[in-house]
Design a protein that fits this description.
With 428 residues, the protein is α/β, with parallel strands linked by helices. The chain is built from 14 helices and 26 strands. 30% of the residues lie in helices and 27% in strands. It binds uridine-diphosphate-2(N-acetylglucosaminyl) butyric acid.
């Protein structure tokens, strides 16, 4: 296992290019199961989760090839296997988005139930409700959900849940409905840019989808999908992470290949903290006014502040001049990073799904442990600004979602090294 050793205190300066979005790429990769002919995907980040999804596709009869220029070429060669097995699903929850395309194209799917993870229980009841509404029968046996249908028929489906809309639930139902007979209307659909990007990809393959990116998505079923070429949108969470890195280190970054319109809530909150942000086309320039103001942050479905940046903004607010309040409305238990940041001198009090962050003058380097992808990003950010040395263990979490993170940070002036974890040094 690798860890990062970070010597804090460097100001980040320079230009960084954001990679393609992990959470857009994963369902688009899954959707290629339904395509007849070759798909060419550009801008798919080279990440552990993407390699994992390709491995799952390979087992399901889909060939994937990464070209020297980074493009992914994908073609379905065998449609026999419909089983996404536990040994792979348990390693990546997003594997559940194979359910919609398997059911839609092969009319059956056997997908291991993913179970919970470090950020919460994460049920998939709404996904199954959507598949059943389209006409599928479902059965749970030995931890696997079996879905089958003679045919799928369009209908109206309400996908709102106790915590709002569901991103992967929406993509799953959208994919299953693309080849269904007739019209499907998804109400209370997730509006995230990653859902819209999937809709754009499917339309490029011949689907008839409208309203993707809004709470009402209309899908008129088609008979087949053909091959196409698609460029995956830039990763808004990576963009936000670099924005926070600039603010934290009192640095100045130009962030290229981003879509500022996907980050309006983040720009709003960071400006309230005192961060200086300039927008120009698909570039952002971010610099910091030395004094960080405390703010309130509430995570919400898009276009609200994303839960996937909650941990990172917490690191920033740890150094604000006063008390901030962070409320998590998507995953109420997503606070594993609180205890680790406290080991670095952060002062916080957790009350249910809210954390009160008392700003401190400085964070102090320490050995800390990554618990999930975004929590590890928050710890790396803390290490960049902390006094002394920080060792972040279990960085395989960060490798799931940030492409070449330490190379990018190094090129901006950070003192960060990836090393093999010394035996016995990772907390159990
Ligand atoms: N929910 C239900 N029932 C369902 C589905 C979801 O109650 O059937 C609840 C969840 O428990 C949660 C809320 O609805 O409280 C929202 O969950 P959602 O389904 O939207 O999350 P997801 O699709 O499983 C995606 C991203 C996450 C991101 C969330 C929220 C992917 C692969 N994952 O998860 O990304 O946090 O949306 O925006 O797209 C990450 O990249 O680090 C990550 C965790």
């Amino acid at each position: 296992m690798d860890c990062f050793v970070i010597n804090g205190g460097s100001r980040l300066k320079g230009t960084v290019t954001v990679s393609g979005s992990k959470n857009a790429a994963l369902p688009i990769l899954a959707a290629t199961i339904m395509v007849e002919g070759e798909t060419v995907l550009k801008g798919v980040p080279d990440l552990a989760d993407v390699r994992h999804m390709c491995l799952m596709l390979n087992r399901l009869g889909v060939e994937t090839k990464r070209e020297a220029n980074g493009d992914l070429r994908i073609v379905v060669v065998d449609e026999m296997n419909c089983h996404a097995e536990y040994d792979l699903v348990r390693q990546m929850r997003a594997s559940v988005c194979l359910m919609g395309p398997l059911l839609g194209k092969r009319k059956k799917a056997q997908v291991s139930m993913p179970g919970g993870c470090a950020i919460g229980d994460r049920p998939i009841n709404l996904h199954i409700l959507g598949m059943e509404a389209l006409g599928a029968e479902s059965e749970l046996t030995s931890g696997d959900i079996f879905l089958k249908a003679k045919k799928l028929t369009g209908c109206e489906i309400f996908l709102g849940g106790a915590f709002g809309s569901t991103v992967t639930g929406t993509t799953n139902v959208m994919m299953a409905a693309v080849l269904a007979e007739g019209r499907t209307v998804i109400e209370a659909a997730a509006c995230e840019p990653e859902v819209a990007d999937l809709g754009n990809f499917l339309n490029a393959c011949g689907a008839h989808i409208s309203g993707h990116g809004t709470p009402r998505i209309t899908i008129d079923g088609v008979k087949t999908l053909h091959g196409s070429e698609h460029v995956v949108i830039p990763d808004r969470i990576e963009t936000g992470t670099f924005m926070i890195a600039a603010a934290l280190t009192n640095g100045e970054l130009t962030i290229q290949n981003c879509r500022p319109e996907h980050l309006l809530a983040v720009i709003d909150r960071l400006r309230c903290v005192g961060v200086i942000i300039e927008r120009e086309g698909n570039h952002l320039t971010v610099s910091s006014a030395r004094r960080l103001e405390p703010v309130e942050v509430t995570t919400q479905p898009f276009p609200g502040f994303p839960t996937d940046l909650q941990a990172q903004i917490m690191t920033l607010l740890c150094l604000a001049d006063g008390n901030s309040v962070i409320t998590e409305k998507i995953f109420p238990d997503r606070f594993m990073h609180v205890a680790e940041l406290s080991r670095m001198g952060a002062q916080m009090r957790k009350e249910g799904s809210t954390v009160i962050v008392h700003g401190v003058k400085r964070l102090i380097g320490a050995p800390v442990m990554a618990s999930d992808l975004r929590a590890s990003a928050a710890l790396v950010l803390a290490g960049l600004v902390a006094k002394g040395q920080t060792r972040v263990s279990r960085v395989y979490h960060i490798d799931r979602g940030y492409e070449r993170i330490e190379e990018k940070l190094k090129s901006l002036g950070a003192d960060i090294q990836r090393i093999a974890e010394p035996p016995g040094s990772s907390p159990s």
